[in-house]
Amino acid sequence: MMSFSFDGFRVGISFVMMCIVYKSAVNSLPELSPQKYFSTLQAGKASLAYFCQADSPSTSVFLEELNKAVKPLQDYGISVAKVNCVKEETSRYCGKEKDLMKAYLFRGNILLREFPTDTLFDENAIIAHVLFALLFNEVKYITTLGDLQNIENALKGKADIAFSYVRAIGTPEHRAVMEAAFVYGNTYQFVLTTEIALLESIGMEDIKYAHLYFFHCKAVLDLTQQCRRTLMGQPLTTLDIYRFIKSMEAPLLTEVAEDPQQVSTVHLQLGLPLVFIVSQQATYEADRRTAEWIAWRLLGKAGVLLLLRDSLEVDIPQQANVVFKREEGMPVEFLVLHDVDLVISYVENNTYIEERQEDEADDMEGPDMGMQDDEVAESVYRDRKRQLPLELIVELTGETFNTTVMASDSIVLFYAGWQAVSMAFLHSYVDLAVKLKGTPTMLLTRINCANWPDVCTKENVTEFPVVKMYKEGENPVSYGGMLGTEDLLKFIQLNRISCPVNITSIQEAEEYLTGELYKDLISYSGVSVLGLFSPSMTTAQEDFTEAGKYLKGCVITGIYSEEDVLILSNKYTTTLPALLLARHKESQVESIPLANTHVQEIVQIITNALLETFPEITVENLPTYLGLQKPLLILFSDGIINPQYQKAMLTLVKEKHLDSVIPCWLNLKNTPVGRGILQVYFEVLPPLPLLVVVNLHSGGQVFAFPSDQAITEQNLLLWLKKLEDGLESHITILSAQEWKPPLPAYDFLRMMDAAASQHPTRKGPEYMKETDIQENDKQPEDKSAVRKERIEL
């Protein structure tokens, strides 16, 4: 329920901002010394102070956004001041550089809240976060349907609810909701969520945009009855929310007995039309029930009145049963509409409501930078109260980075505290630390590049987040897998051994191939690769060794080049040089000749060998299979596939009949997006299982296996032969448009360096040696603090 302490919050807020420097004069901000500023703080006075230290890097962009927020904050009784720190100042707010990365929210002299300044990325974010903190009791943040139901039940018969969904905290929509809550927080209970699933659970289909519902709970006396809900149809702006709430406060239905041309209500003042339901004494009760029903349907869109024809001095056409008034001063329209839906449709089609833009970012200046990772940002906000055991991860600084990574084998997470993806991945990184707690593995560390950009630039980190492994005597290796706990754990565990492993005897080679030699790693690598070479094949051995280093952390590789290597080649019927692929799950060893192959070819052979013969397609592995540039032969199934279908597929694969396609299957229960894919292929969702060929890379045609035929080896071969001969017709052609991210990636460190020194760093090409990059940039190198040649993998 609403808190009575809100008025105290409203008048007693001191919001202290910590900055780094801003050399240009900002006339609208009064400048004070720290002592002067703190001496002026009084109970009942609200203040927003920005602390600056003269000899720190510039944050002009942030100060510009803060300057834009000055006037709106003053409208809410919060003044703004710039406080200049001096070098001798040792207070908490003018002390260490890391303290200048935070924002401090005060009430009088009492600290209420700390924010990282990078969360206040623009004017909207500053105002939204400040008001959100002040209205902690007035605006309930929820994450589950149960939370919403509990609030709804508690307020039945007591107060109404304004429930809103925004895509992320700090957006313009979030600011608009907070400004409305500042005004109406003592009248209505405001509830906020960023959970899409919660919005879906209350029956909202279009969840692409922010929404606001008004729950009519005050009039509900029966606790078993659900509160009526009215959806706001306009975009979430401060003015539109004000209009919407005012329309909720207006009477649901008003009876009038005067000329409609002379009638005026609050709805016309809010820009909403009026709908008069014409009634007469004989049908009054039925007409009133109809009018109430229409009023609920049009709530927030129009005002509804019951017009008593018998009491009118003005004549209304006898056949007219509805009068429509668009706005003040305009002639009314007399209508004949005998159906409630016709009335609703007429009003909605003849009322100007600002249409939503396809991209709400069009209403903002510049590209929608803040919303690129909106779902990630929402998840970060949802988990903001989760206490992470960060003590399991060593935090590095500019002073401790080199000494730490030189002293022990280390995993370093380079991240930015202001970036949503970084903060989301930090949770996975902490989960990794929990899994590895108590095991003798590498030291897990992290460094915030927002605080230590020089270190990250020197380590060639220009995008976030990045994980690198540092091992004594070896080149640092960058992790390039999925940003999840399990994938990163696999990377670390497989890096415990050298790649390739040097096998020295036939017995050791057999143990390696059976999985006994590294049985604790088999769960992370289902395939072990052994290269067979005669002692004289030095070039081939070097190429295989380079390929093994490239694949380090992805698969276990070993090399055998002893004099008795022919024993193994004869046993597995292969010629030297060769690869032996041990598939531990199937207990099979496959041989592949390596004559005249080079590093990249060996890498590709091994990478392809890691792929499953008949894989289940998921969101995670789809890009890998698309990268093979072959048509997909997909079996869609609503659960586990029929073993007979699987046997037919595997038989055709073994007999090399499916080399021109990628046979795979998709479980709609595990990957629900598959239903959406099928709806693109077919107008009506067909019965499952269903087999299709999708030629994404050449024409985009989609072909469907005949539904009246059984999926057998013979039927599949005949159908594929018809496809090859062009005798089958496609069911649809997919669009050739590219699937690109909404915004390009940005080199944020380069931007920061350019702003500070006008000398941006250069990003080297992928797989380029870091030492080469450093030499090209001609930057001096601390020989004692930098390892040997570094390779990006």
From TrEMBL:
Domain TXNDC16 second thioredoxin-like as annotated: residue spans: 132-251
Domain TXNDC16 N-terminal: 28-131
Domain TXNDC16 third thioredoxin-like: 252-341
Species in which this protein is naturally found: Myotis myotis (Greater mouse-eared bat)
Domain Thioredoxin span(s) in chain numbering: 394-493
Disordered, as annotated region: 757-793
Any Pfam family matching the protein: Thioredoxin
Record field: compositional bias (Basic and acidic residues): 763-793
Protein name, per record: Thioredoxin domain containing 16
